[in-house]
Design goal:
Helix content of chain A: 25-40%
Oligomer: heterodimer
Shape of chain A: globular
Largest sheet of chain B: none
Strand content of chain A: 15-25%
Radius of gyration of chain B: 24 Å
Structural class of chain A: alpha+beta
Radius of gyration of chain A: 25 Å
Structural class of chain B: mainly alpha
Distance between the termini of chain B: 7 Å
Chain lengths: 524, 335
């Protein structure tokens, strides 16, 4: 009996090993810190990992391809047009025929209407993109026929922003019938979609073991066939473990390595590394409220001459970021590569003297105890800035506190200078222009008490312009203006360090953080 | 005896209540806004306001506590601010992993620590004793993060013997969830490949987590055994010609077992609550990792839920220890 059992057991092990060996080239294991994952419902997920995964489970009407975030490409819609109606913009989408959900049903206009209305009614953390930015209302989306959808948004909203927002997971189209079947007490299927999927994307969700892993499998009905059969998102928080797991072959891709680890891995031919762009900006925000030294534009300019950006980017950030001085990040329409400020403490001193501070001044530099973009502790960046400013006669007293607390002070306009980061909510220049330039948006310009009519006007014009080249001109004017007189010292645009097994091919990550898993393959 | 048990149970309830009270008000001292922590830098004022209303964060502290306690009586631990799920559901998800890891570590500590202690006590100041004492010193003094990273590097990366992280190889399918303990579920599903692989994943973290307990147990066992072995009745037993093993196990160990038992109780409680670092280093999805994530995002209901659970486990383990006491030593009588 025991012998028989032993034989069976060893047979099981052999079979198991065979299955595992066969799976290795068709399965990708992606390791990273996915601890922010709280839901896989496309209309609710607003965290990085939630978006990363749902992007591959659901399709959107329009999308970006590769690393290009300035040209919209067809998604579920094969074409679309924007027209001026009486008091609103009318955007008409023509759906392509034959797109199918993982359930086997065809994607039609009623699913689009359901998904958009669902996004508004669920009031998820990203719903403001639909309700505030695009000013879309329930009923604003209409099915003209099974393959035609018409969306109306008010004239005050920007159609360009709306189309960009649609590339996000909130614009992911769900199978309305399937979701309604699982709805409970008017939740629009929210509870069910948290850990199940009903999309037409190249993958479908198989299981999510919270805190451990998410398992995706090729969607048999999808129009876009992926190269891999399974994707496993392994949650690994500790950077050293991430590195060891990559080196021992337990994972194929590691996201979130330290700059040192990345350097060491880059030297090993078994691996490849990549520094993917992000749309984040790390910057200093200067509170210009009356009475503050920063109320004087000369002081703000002096600050920009007094930060040694080259040393910061090449030394401290170790190349995990690129130099930038304007407020629209590289990768978006309207990016302005101007770099007029060089480290010049003498010039800064002169400007300060002209502004009435011949002996400099003292201020509090507020930041978080956590990490700033590029995986660098904010306190280290603050210390570097402190020593640069000292040479221009300005004394910065660093106050590093928990991120939420620092943000609270910043949001209440109670800071002097805040060191932090900003990521646009959607991949459109307006995601930076309005918050950073328009006081009325109650975002960053407001927090820094910078109420400037020219900047506000340019930001508004830019958001409503539908002609890309005219839009680019407006953003050139705006970025140059803020560069000269705004309340910011833009420090760098961080990049995301990644390392892969050399067998992984086709990995592309755009600056918005989207990765199309269907293009990834693995060599045997 | 019965009245003793009842009184002890009442005491457990009281302790657990004390735990909720203390954690709730300590949590309130933290001067930051959980809404900002949850929604981040881009959140709008209306979103923050809505969040505060949804979770009752705009009510007074006393009111929040009363609501919390009211819910607690119906078994509702509240809703996590971070995951938006019921805290009880989160605990059901994460606790089995911690239990599995702690029990493995405990088993390892007992199987290694007690025999080592006995061995040392039989050869006082001779090589086996010295070896055990040195190892115990090392085991007790090496921090978890150090031994974990060292062993991961050595055993996993260099020698490729054991996996670095997680509970199961990524290429294997986890068994259907029954108890939530991977090994046990694999056994129930008769999936031997998964069972063996999950054991392989358990070895390193359990060793690292149990090392400290094993060291303490070894020292404690050695000390009590030495004390007992020096007593008159042991000499009498030996003089009578009782077999050596009988002297050691029946006469000496039984009498040395009471202090060891007390220690075991507190060690088990400690393992369950102290798995935070180990879980983080080994990507082990247990309550230790859950509670650190919750604490960093100021998710008070979740932190309270874990504290309550750990408090309850501690109190129950203590209760069982005390009852075992009475069982092992009939001289101990409770009135």
């Amino acid at each position: 009996m025991w012998r028989k059992f032993q034989r069976l057991a060893s047979l099981g092990v052999v079979l198991g090993t065979l299955v595992v060996a066969q799976d290795r080239t068709s399965t990708l294991i992606y390791g990273g810190d996915w601890s922010d994952l709280i839901t896989l419902d496309p209309q609710v997920a607003y965290e990085f990992s939630g978006g990363l995964i749902t992007d591959n489970l659901y399709e959107t009407l329009v999308k970006f391809e590769g690393a290009d975030l300035s040209t919209l490409k067809p998604g579920l819609a094969e074409s679309w047009k924007v027209e001026r109606g009486g008091d609103s913009w009318v955007i008409t989408f023509k759906l392509r025929k034959g797109s199918k959900f993982s359930t086997g049903r065809e994607v039609t206009a009623k699913d689009v209407v359901f998904s958009f209305d669902r996004a508004i009614q669920l009031k998820g953390p990203s719903s403001f993109l639909f309700t505030d930015i695009a000013q879309l209302k329930v009923g604003g989306t209409r099915a003209v026929d099974p393959y035609t959808v018409e969306v109306r948004i008010p004239k005050t909203a920007s159609p360009g922003s709306f189309l960009s927002i649609l590339t996000f997971n909130i614009g992911g189209i769900v199978d309305s019938e399937e979701v309604q079947q699982h709805a409970k007490g008017g939740d629009f299927g929210k509870e069910w979609l948290t850990s199940n999927s009903a999309g037409s994307g190249p993958f479908r969700l198989v299981r999510w073991d919270r805190g451990s892993q998410v398992l995706l499998e090729a969607n048999p009905n999808a129009r876009i066939k992926p190269k891999l059969q399974r994707i496993i998102m392994r949650e690994i928080k500790e950077p050293t473990v991430l590195r060891t797991a990559l080196e021992s072959g337990e994972i194929d891709i590691a996201e979130g390595l330290t700059p040192e680890a990345l350097k060491a891995i880059a030297a090993n031919p078994r691996f490849k590394t990549l520094k993917a762009d992000s749309l984040r900006l790390n910057y200093l925000g200067m509170n210009v409220k009356p009475g503050s030294p920063f109320a004087n534009p000369k002081v703000r300019e002096a600050m920009r001459w007094a930060v040694n950006q080259d040393e910061l980017v090449s030394g401290l950030v170790q190349g995990n970021g690129v130099k930038i001085q304007t407020i629209i990040p590289k990768g978006l329409l309207g990016y302005n590569g101007a770099l007029p400020y060089k480290y010049d403490p003498a010039r800064a001193k002169k400007l300060l003297a002209e502004a009435g501070y011949p002996n400099g001044f003292e201020f509090e530099l507020l930041t978080s105890t956590g990490l700033c973009g590029g995986g660098i502790p904010c306190q280290d960046i603050a210390a570097k800035i402190q020593s640069d400013l000292a040479k221009a006669g300005v004394k910065a007293n660093i106050k590093a506190i928990a991120n939420a607390e620092a943000l609270k002070i910043y949001r209440a306009q109670n800071h002097q200078v805040y060191l932090g980061g900003w990521s646009p909510d959607f991949p459109d220049p307006d995601g930076n222009a309005t918050p950073l330039a328009d006081f009325a948006a109650k975002s960053l310009a407001w927090r820094n008490v910078w109420d400037d009519a020219t900047a506000s006007k340019l930001a508004n014009q830019g958001s409503l312009e539908t002609d890309p080249s005219k839009r680019a001109t407006l953003y050139k004017l705006l970025t140059d203006y803020v560069l000269k007189s705004g309340p910011y010292v833009v420090l760098y645009q961080p990049s995301i360090p990644l390392a892969f097994s050399a067998k992984v091919e086709g990995y592309v990550r755009n600056a918005q953080g989207q990765v199309r898993f269907e293009n990834i393959s693995k060599l045997p | 005896m019965l009245s003793y048990i009842v009184r002890r149970l009442f005491f457990v309830i009281f302790v657990v209540w004390g735990v909720t009270f203390a954690t709730f008000f300590i949590a309130q001292v933290v001067p930051v806004d959980p809404a900002i922590a949850a929604l981040g830098e881009n959140a709008r004022e209306e979103q923050l306001q809505e969040f505060r209303e949804r979770y009752g964060l705009n009510k007074s502290r006393l009111e929040q506590y009363l609501i919390y306690m009211g819910r607690l009586f119906s078994g509702d631990l509240g809703q996590s601010l971070r995951t938006g799920r019921a805290v009880a559901e989160d605990l059901r998800e994460f606790f089995p992993a911690t239990l599995e890891l702690s029990l493995a570590a405990f088993l390892f500590a007992v199987l290694l620590g007690i025999p080592a202690g006995i061995l040392a006590s039989l050869f006082p100041n001779r090589p086996p004793d010295v070896a055990v004492r040195i190892l115990a010193l090392l085991g007790g003094a090496t921090p978890v993060f150090f031994s974990a990273v060292l062993l991961q590097f050595l055993l996993a990366q260099r020698l490729d013997l054991l996996p670095v992280q997680g509970r199961l190889d990524g290429f294997l399918f986890p068994p259907p969830r029954i108890t939530g303990m991977m090994g046990l579920d694999a056994l129930l599903a008769r999936d031997w490949t998964v069972f063996l692989d999950s054991l392989k994943h358990l070895i390193l973290p359990a060793f690292v987590l149990g090392m400290f307990s094993a060291a303490i147990l070894a020292r404690m066992t050695r000390a009590t055994m030495l004390e007992v072995l020096a007593q008159d009745y042991i000499r009498t037993a030996r003089a009578k010609g009782v077999v050596a093993s009988a002297v050691i196990f029946r006469h000496a160990l039984k009498n040395a077992s009471l202090p060891i038992l007390t220690l075991l109780g507190s060690l088990l409680g400690g393992l369950l609550s102290g798995a935070v670092l180990t879980e983080t280093i080994f990507s082990w999805p247990g309550i230790g990792r859950y509670v650190t994530q919750s604490a960093t995002s100021l998710d008070f209901p979740a932190v309270m839920g874990v504290t309550l659970l750990v408090g309850l486990v501690y109190a129950l383990v203590n209760l069982v220890t005390d009852l075992l006491y009475a069982f092992l030593d009939p001289r101990i009588r409770y009135t």
